[in-house]
Amino acid sequence: MNNIKIAVVGLGTVGSNVVKSIESLNKSNKVNQKIQFEIIGISAKSKSKKRIIDINKYKWFDDPIDLFNFNFDVLIELIGTEKGISYNLIKKALNQNINVITANKALLAKYGNELFTIAKNNEVKLLFEAAVAGGIPIINLLKNSIFLNRINHISGILNGTTNFILSQMEKNNCTFDESLKLASEKGYAEQDPTNDIEGIDSAYKITLLSSLCYGIEINHNFSNYSGINNFDIEDIKYAKKLGYKIKLISESMLIDDQIYIDTSPKLINENHSLARVEGVLNAINIKTDHLKSLFIEGEGAGGKATSSSIIADLYELITSKKDSKLDSSLSNLKNIKSYDKNSLKRAYYFRILVKDQPGVLSKVTSILTSKNISIQTILQLNEEKINDKVPIILKTYETFEKNIQETINIISNENFIENKIVTLTIHN
Ligand SMILES: NC(=O)c1ccc[n+]([C@@H]2O[C@H](COP(=O)([O-])OP(=O)(O)OC[C@H]3O[C@@H](n4cnc5c(N)ncnc54)[C@H](OP(=O)(O)O)[C@@H]3O)[C@@H](O)[C@H]2O)c1
């Protein structure tokens, strides 16, 4: 390919920046001078919308499907629907032997197996560096740089919106609602932030990373998740007293040849590298048989940062051979079972709001002991007493989740309980 013909569909935050990046790439001498990128067509919903690019330089398509009446080598899909038009375009392109670059994690997490198989059969590429952690080149790192390592564990902060909210709550003592409002005002939260705050967006991303890390089929149903919606500032404050921060952490590991994938708000030691990731940044920590810890941090979103990853994929397309190992990284994937999370041992944080009356503390500890849960730290915060209610904060040693659930059920029925019991896992 010397003249690379490209179609760009979706000209929003990412798409417009990608067009700009391609324009500047053509002017620069970064890529072999013999190669030119030619945008043969662009498409978005509204032609009259104000954009950071001059759309008049390009052929406009009201319906992106009409692009297929023309010849092109690469489809860059930046519409971002979970199925519908994005799925139709990508599938059609792959079936017509056209390479695809996308940032669409939701679609790949749900339909990736089918789409990667079509790509493999037709010997074209389906690249998605921008789909996980925006500008951080994590996919390339996993596919190429640490290809031979056996990955033992991967964990990360994969959603900038929720990390901004938690940082804001911690640093400026804001409530969840205030922090979400600020995230929207700054353009960090989408109009409908559900996927971000409920942990769904992070769950899609860790699903994709898990497939690459462990060579397993993409199965979003294996991804356990919970988010930070209505998260209480009290827990951030009490976690701090114990030497922890609270972060929305996605992680995955193989246990007994089964996959465990989880995204949830967790306590993390304040000295851990992930605990120091602030604001909208993303970060990933990988442990392998060769590397005790590999840590990478950067911009997980934003037009420019994400565009950098799309261009990296474009570069990969022109530099890799058609039959390179690239496609083998997402083919011949193993179909394995999901690890039962009840069998996993973890340490837990408890916040229990109780009536301030004699014997309550010993009653709580005896219930935990009866469930084989050992307490590492216990704080009865009398200085936090309001209307004769006082919080008990507990940190346990590692125990099974099912013991925790049983304990919650028992304690919740005691008459000294004043509120819903909060439990969070502690990231090891
Ligand atoms: N934003 C980020 O920081 C970021 C980071 C990483 C990955 N991503 C991923 O990148 C993708 C794009 O995200 P974005 O933030 O750029 O989204 P966006 O700003 O909402 O842009 C979406 C674009 O798709 C166009 N569009 C919608 N329906 C269409 C249709 N039927 N036909 C043609 N075009 C249509 C829209 O047209 P109009 O402009 O006319 O409305 C808009 O230009 C998503 O998969 C997202 O998950 C985004």
Describe it for me?
- Strands 6, 7, 8, 9, 10, 11, 12, 13, 14, 15 and 16 form an eleven-stranded mixed sheet that branches. The protein has a five-stranded parallel sheet with strand order 2-1-3-4-5, sandwiched between helices.
- The chain folds into three domains: 3-127, Rossmann fold (3-Layer(aba) Sandwich); 138-298, 2-Layer Sandwich (Dihydrodipicolinate Reductase, domain 2), CATH 3.30.360; 341-426, Alpha-Beta Plaits (2-Layer Sandwich).
- It has helices at residues 13-27, 84-95, 105-121, 138-145, 160-172, 176-185, 194-197, 200-214, 233-241, 303-319, 360-370, 401-412, and strands spanning 3-9, 36-43, 74-77, 99-102, 126-127, 151-157, 223-225, 244-255, 258-269, 281-288, 294-299, 345-355, 375-380, 389-396, 399-400, 422-426.
- Helix content is 33%, strand content 25%.
- Strand 10 and strand 11 form a beta hairpin.
- With 428 residues, the chain is of the alpha/beta class.
- The radius of gyration is 24 Å and the shape is elongated.
- The model has no long low-confidence stretch (mean pLDDT 93).
- NADP nicotinamide-adenine-dinucleotide phosphate is lined by residues 9-15, 43-46, 49, 64, 78-80, 85, 103-104, 130, 134, 301-302, 306.
Topology (SSEs and partners):
Blueprint: E1 3-9, H1 13-27, E2 36-43, E3 74-77, H2 84-95, E4 99-102, H3 105-121, E5 126-127, H4 138-145, E6 151-157, H5 160-172, H6 176-185, H7 194-197, H8 200-214, E7 223-225, H9 233-241, E8 244-255, E9 258-269, E10 281-288, E11 294-299, H10 303-319, E12 345-355, H11 360-370, E13 375-380, E14 389-396, E15 399-400, H12 401-412, E16 422-426
Parallel strand pairs: 1-2, 1-3, 3-4, 4-5, 7-9, 9-16
Antiparallel strand pairs: 6-8, 6-10, 8-9, 10-11, 12-14, 12-15, 12-16, 13-14
